[in-house]
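Narrative of activities, Objective 1.

The group set out to show that a structural description can be obtained from nothing but a protein's sequence at a throughput compatible with the screening campaign. Below is one input-output pair from the validation batch, recorded exactly as produced.
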Amino acid sequence: MKTYNIAIDGPSGAGKSTISRTVAEKLGFLYVDTGAMYRVIGLHYLETGSPSLDGLTISLKYVNGEQRVLMNDRDVSEEIRQHSVSRAASDRSKEQQVRDFLLEQQRHMAKKHNVIMDGRDIGTVVLPGADLKIFLTADPEERARRRYDELLLRGEKTFDYETILHDITERDRQDQDRSIAPLKPAQDAIILNTTGNTFEQSVLQIEKLIRKHTGI
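Output recorded for this entry:
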């Protein structure tokens, strides 16, 4: 039975996770948040101080219709959204051992399910044969504003807008310049810039693209 694989890539703060999760729920697809998987590795490193991945397990679990992220069977869905974890995840994502560790798990999910998988190298490395590839982006200033508002809603007040903008710009540079799987659109990706969009407009655009390319 054929499974449909949708790859959504883009820079930090572009809204990939929230948009992809919403579209996946509407279409009945499995949402695979690869960024969350990297964040688990970042959290693991911050807690242990060791780069070793021995004994680490990462899994996705639905609880009351909501997808949760588990690290060694511990729910870390909220912890991995901390700004410090995001920084650690970016640093560790450059390591080949980390990418190899996650690649097998991600491809296995895509073989078993209709998936919407988001990240930074899904269309170029993880799922190069995806049925549809979307590169989702927005201006750095808008991405920083979205991220800042998200942190405020979670009660994190230790970062100001300028710090967030600096971190996003630096993250873009690191992701684009890294030697292993740099951030870039796949040659056959559709570029979608959501600057000025409402959340609902972005969801509708992607839903229409997926229905058009899969016939669902």
